[in-house]
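Ticket #4471: structure export looks truncated?
Reporter: QA, pipeline team
Priority: medium

Steps to reproduce: submit the single chain below to the structure queue and open the exported record.
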Amino acid sequence: MSKGDQSRFLSSAEEMQAKLGPALCLAKWKQVSLHLQTGMNNSCYHPPLHKINIEDIGRNPSALHNTEHKKAQRQMMLAGERPAECQYCWNMEDQNKLSDRHYRSGEPWATVDFEKITNSQGTEDDVIPSYVEVNFNNACNLRCSYCSPQFSSSWADEAARHGAYPTSTPHNSMDHFGGDRRIIPGREYNPYVDAFWSWWPDLYPQLQHFRMTGGEPLLDRNTYRVFDYVLANPKPDLHLNVTSNFCVDEKSWQKYLGYVKQLCQEGNLEHFMQYVSLDAWGSQAEYIRDGMDFELLWDRVNQFLTEVPNYSSLTFIVTMNNLSVTTLAELFAGILGLRKTYSNTYQRVWFDTPVLRAPAWQSLQILPESYAEKLELVWAWMVRQIETPEEPFKGFKDYELSRLDRDITWMRSAQGQDHAVFKADFYRFFSEHDRRRDTNFLKTFPDMKAWWEECAYHARNT
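Actual output as written to the record:
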């Protein structure tokens, strides 16, 4: 990909900003995230999850995507009305920033149906998405601080043993995961997974991007069922993506790596994107994602990039939370080093910086201004390392700078608000985290001592 191609990613978002009007987002039609362990659905990760009607999928498995709720949102958008569930994007746009609806709608898998969507009614039952994310179950070996039993069996085991965390709203109480939110264990029959595999033969020919998340997909038998299907039915235009913590046991890792090597042979697919979740550097990354072995992860990143050299790339998902700030520069320097090593004829190492919005006590927005200034320094350093036409693939990209700038703007948008409850919850949560998991916040984050003491004050007085 040339410098011009990379900039087109930003310019296509700017073009869609003008074309979409005040409310339209093509992701409501062309993208879906399926959480089959609870029977939930959303169009991207910003709107809240909503329940899939189990009776509807019995008659028509495409109702996994085309829910009545989503059809109502589509109708609103076509009428120029902003759905409340998409508030994150509206907030960005109200501050004159490009939002994710501009970026997503500007990608080829979405724009291909722009005219068809703008001329639709929004009530159609047979919309087949071209970008599908799915997690089949919650099996996971980590207990990431901002995760939940819904997405991690390890979290569920801890919550069952020790109960909820003592925040103002009890965090990760198993009482919350009942009724419509009940987690269906992988060992049980799951009608949503069954409906997915019924839909799969119709879905697969239309897919351009298929992404498996979790849980931990490397521990999920459905991951390998998808791999076997692709190997038996090659699809040269398919982008196949998997999100992993890269810290599974060695046997599971070798099985997975062997499959990926087979998939990335000529003719099986267009591209394999490996997503790796990593929010900070070293011991601080391990603290955020309890159970992570940072050195093992970094070794496997290098192994993947070395042993799967064709038809593949790797993207770090850097979920921007308030524990990311102090080592973000080290993480970005590490990513830059990987680009200089492995990105020669095309870009093989990527990253994205989505912001964490829940739980609120781990949000960037409750940090003091001094932490926004730290991120400004990271941004300024990135500007000096920007990619050039003379040396492509080695530096940072214009839209990566734009996205971090957007994150800083979002962080500052809550200044002046009263965050006392969230600061108190921060202290209560991580004090209990240290007790249950034998961790030590101040030893791991010595630069955040003043912040810790401020949060402790609010915990005593709120």
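Status: closed, not a bug. The export was complete when the record was re-opened. Leaving a note from the reviewer for reference: The chain has a mean pLDDT of 94.
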